[in-house]
Write a structure and sequence with these properties.
It contains four helices and 14 strands. By secondary structure, the protein is an alpha+beta fold.
């Protein structure tokens, strides 16, 4: 009987402890929501003072992305070369981190910095599907394909890493009279190693403050901020590649990108359609 009562007491203590923990967690979440709401209201007021409208509901509560160190993936480069040039490839090491590939459709160069270019008669039929398939296979956003009446045009897609865009990493397709003649850009490996900095990366609110300071100092023409989204910034140094967390600030004129480590703001150009992140 004593054991039975002791067991019940222990169960009751555990239930009370769990209830207390749930209450504490609920209180903490409520305090976090209240703090975020106050921050959003202050940001909206600050932007309004500078003559900008900021949609408070667009301020992301998501944590900033983590940085990543990238290692060159020679096997992926060879697959990309085979996709563009055909399976019967010849390859050679040109030195300086440059690999040359040649195939029935043309030639390509791949560099240790991730840059590449391919030229030739890369696709003569189903060019649009060919480009879309390349983007799907090698992690780019679907490009906004636009060809003139003669079937010529140049269009760009943005690299995607872990479902997030890399704003300064793209691939460009050149089509001449219905023939894909050139593809160039940056090919990143699909995986990387997580890295961390001593400094805590900026939150979305911190990135908006950095953007607001830049806009005030540069007098950039912006009247409305409609969204802010996590993304990456590609950083290269010699043969080293890495991704830094960043935030994409969407405005009525163009997109801006804020490095979450340094707070540096980069203008990304006007949005052009699906190819833009």
């Amino acid at each position: 009987m004593d054991r039975f009562r002791l067991k019940n007491i222990i169960i009751l203590i555990l239930l009370l402890l769990n209830g207390f923990l749930l209450f504490s967690l609920s209180q903490r979440r409520t305090m976090q929501r209240d703090a975020f709401r106050r921050t959003a209201e202050q940001l909206v007021a600050l932007f309004e003072e500078d003559g900008m409208a900021l949609d408070g509901g667009a301020i992301s509560q998501a944590a900033p992305l983590g940085g990543a160190a990238l290692v060159r993936d020679a096997a992926q480069e060879e697959r990309a070369a085979a996709f563009l040039l055909g399976e019967a490839l010849s390859s050679s090491d040109q030195g300086g981190g440059i690999f040359h590939y040649a195939g029935a459709a043309g030639e390509a160069l791949f560099r240790s910095s991730g840059g590449f270019e391919a030229a030739g008669t890369l696709a003569e039929r189903g060019v649009e599907d060919f480009c879309l398939d390349f983007c799907k296979e090698f992690s780019y956003t679907p490009p906004a394909i636009s060809l003139d009446s003669e079937g010529s045009g140049v269009f760009t897609a943005v690299t995607v890493f872990g479902k997030h865009p890399v704003f300064n990493s793209t691939v460009t397709f050149t089509v001449e009279r219905g023939v894909l003649t050139a593809v160039s850009g940056t090919l990143l490996p699909k995986t990387g190693t997580s890295v961390s900095e001593e400094a805590e990366p900026l939150s979305a609110a911190g990135a908006l403050l950095a953007f607001q300071r830049m806009r005030r100092e540069s007098a950039a023409v912006v009247s409305t901020v409609t969204d802010i989204q996590p993304c990456y910034e590609l950083q290269t140094s010699g043969t080293t590649m890495s991704l830094a967390p960043a935030w994409r600030v969407v405005t009525d004129t163009e997109d801006y990108y804020v490095n979450a480590y340094t707070g540096a703001v980069t203008a990304g150009g006007a949005r052009t359609g699906e190819g833009a992140p």
